[in-house]
């Protein structure tokens, strides 16, 4: 029971926050908040591969797409529970979406994780593209027309709670894994693969494990995305979406869970916060500023916001000391 | 402290929003102003702006000026969703003019519907778009009609029996037209000898064209955008394919001839209007558009113009500025003298109007025939 | 049979386009071990530079060899300058950072060029001036060999041989190889790595410049996002052949071009892009360093 204390606390906090926000802010900010939770899931899951295990995946959008399509298709075609139990049904389908993405992650990871560095990046990029092209050509999934009319998970407090549950599951699963012997294995692969192998760690197996778990949560993120936008088509899951996920991980700091969360929120909010600028100037300079900020960030603070520290470490190191 | 300030600066514009001015009616528009669909979004945006400038110059509606808030969606569905939500909640727009691509409209229209804000799409031709609800309208004809038009034209005017299709598989518009064309063409005993595809952004189509050449079709249906069609025509002629190419309104642009040069001449496409028309609405529009932007308006610009005009006319007629009042007036739109023909909105909130078939002849767009629904 | 020959010709001509751009990727990777994602956008800027210069100089309407040559030289200069600026401002400060950071910066530069290109040049496509007349060199039946195809292939091969010469027969080439092998030791031997890397960017970017004019000549439509797709394909081609290996880039590009062509011809046009990546994945799984790449064993 003790192990569940922190997750339960976190969930309660998020629930209170969600209900509070429901009264406090308008639909626009609510929508952005929901997208932020999706991005949080994406960046946390990719952090497991890119940050903790030191492997470089550029195909995260592909797994997200599989999850999104699975859940979207299932909830429009395979509904088995009455309307009133919609939330339970969605939960089941989201798990299904995660499992489908995890299975794909296993199939992709097993052969390709023998490759290193840039080559792995290219192969994962290739798989991401293959998944997208395949989706374009599948008529029962709508092809380029996509799937529309995906049921949402209810009004804002419900949707936010639903996302929060998954955020908490994702955060604490990865946290627990990273503080177990598996996690040590992942870290050892990142730090020195050859030494890890010499210590008797099956590195490919470690990498595949990390990859599958990461794909699972990417699939969950995709499913949530599908339910929040109510419409998906393959153009939501391009190479740029994968890049976005990588950017969030690096921005937050490789191997920092809380960093990933903060970065995901920044990356979601920044383009929206820059919208007034567009209304003023008439041209959309958002992506120009975004890319410039990215370059400057990499040059001025190459370790990302938090480095490999967590928020609590940062708090202790900087804020408490200065007080 | 510095970081806190920075965070505040970032969050402030989010929360503050725009203050509403008294003597203005705010209309929202979202479109792809950057990203891979930007060239189409910009076109439509030009048409919308021209229409609203005209209306404001003539004194506005209900004694108020109209101000337009345009947001960019970068060609992403989720951006379209948040842009529309922003327009509704932050800018308090009375109505929304939607984007070009059907995909974005499918993500955005349900949001307008659930907030009961009228939504007029200039050029989203996918049939599903207006199924979002009774607040969603469009001023263009839908995919099935345009595909049917060209199939009919091929069978009746060109008198051909064998056709090939080259579709843009990345684009729902193109896939929709190609599907309908194939179905319609086969009905009268026609045969589709090859059905190949490319992806928007490709530049080399010789593989597909060589394949089509070996099947000897009598015409090739290429329902893509002018950005690729110009190159396709050129490469087809280089490979010695002499049969006519046919397409849809995505072809309509000055750039089509500039890119395709002589190779594009003699080919046919369906469109909303013809620049050869003597209808004063059309000639006036073309004159004003050329004066303002120094280019011939393409189909999307004309549709953007009509969408804005129809919306404003409905606002003018409506007793007040509530979403419901405007919606009710929009649904009563009948025989509106638009640039793209006499527009009536039917019970599915789709435009009913005739299409014209145009033959490319240098920089001219030669009118061939009109095909009625 | 005639169709097969036609497909073969199409494939080689497509491959030679990929080759021109793949060479630039391979150059930078070979020396710096970094994927220069911005390469395809330097190529895009090159195409626009050629477009504006052709209009400014008023040579857009007199096609001919001298026009082509002038434009190529101008574009090469523009691209090298751009490459130098990018290297100096964005990449050099990150010389000793983790690989992922350099890669993200490269993606940042790429996005920056794409989006500021859309603001500066406009998002609608521009028509590239006709710099040379295309004519048929040889025709057998319905199969034709055209001058553009031969030119692009020729330039690609010359560029490859030139690079080989530069790398293996000149002093600066030796310095480049030294920096590639070990920048620290190279600097002890009196080679200035910064200068060599800057030179590498000049060479790589000039190649992008040549590529942009030739592609613009063959497919006369340019827009700010034109580099994205072709860049990705060319890059995959470079990896396929063994990135860092000049000959490998050309070989990989030819394989890519031919396989894309044959996929459309004999399998399915819809899966063209997917199968191109599929081939890459299969080859990498069986030969992890690419076809001609050297597989280096990590030493402890």
TrEMBL record, chain A:
Principal subcellular localization: membrane
InterPro entries (UniProt xref): ABC_transp_permease, LivM-like
Record's GO cellular component terms: plasma membrane
Transmembrane segments: 28-49, 56-75, 87-107, 119-138, 158-178, 210-233, 245-271, 283-300
Stored CDD domains: TM_PBP1_LivM_like (cd06581)
UniProt GO molecular function: branched-chain amino acid transmembrane transporter activity
Protein name according to UniProt: Branched-chain amino acid ABC transporter permease
Organism in which the protein naturally occurs: Bdellovibrio bacteriovorus
UniProtKB/TrEMBL annotation, chain B:
SUPFAM superfamilies: Periplasmic binding protein-like I (SSF53822)
Keyword Signal in annotation: yes
Pfam annotation, one family: Peripla_BP_6
InterPro entries in the record: BCAA_transport, Leu-bd, Leu_Ile_Val-bd, Peripla_BP_I
GO biological process: amino acid transport
Keywords: Amino-acid transport, Signal, Transport
Domain (Leucine-binding protein) ranges: 25-361
Domain of life according to the entry: Bacteria
PANTHER family registered for this protein in UniProt: LEUCINE-SPECIFIC-BINDING PROTEIN, PERIPLASMIC BINDING PROTEIN OF ABC TRANSPORTER FOR NATURAL AMINO ACIDS
Entry's family note: Belongs to the leucine-binding protein family.
Protein name as catalogued: Ethanolamine utilization protein EutJ
Originating organism: Bdellovibrio bacteriovorus
UniProtKB/TrEMBL annotation, chain C:
Pfam families noted in UniProt: BPD_transp_2
Recorded topology in the membrane: Multi-pass membrane protein
Coiled-coil intervals: none
InterPro entries on file: ABC_transp_permease, BCAA_transport_permease
Entry GO MF terms: L-isoleucine transmembrane transporter activity; L-leucine transmembrane transporter activity; L-phenylalanine transmembrane transporter activity; L-valine transmembrane transporter activity
GO biological process: D-alanine transmembrane transport; L-alanine transport; L-isoleucine import across plasma membrane
Membrane-traversing stretches: 12-30, 42-59, 65-86, 98-115, 135-163, 197-215, 235-255, 275-293
Gene Ontology cellular-component annotations: plasma membrane
Subcellular location(s) of the protein: Cell membrane
Major localisation: membrane
Keywords: Amino-acid transport, Cell inner membrane, Cell membrane, Membrane, Transmembrane, Transmembrane helix, Transport
Family affiliation: Belongs to the binding-protein-dependent transport system permease family. LivHM subfamily.
UniProt-listed PANTHER family: BRANCHED-CHAIN AMINO ACID TRANSPORT SYSTEM PERMEASE PROTEIN LIVH, HIGH-AFFINITY BRANCHED-CHAIN AMINO ACID TRANSPORT SYSTEM PERMEASE PROTEIN LIVH
Protein known as: Branched-chain amino acid ABC transporter permease
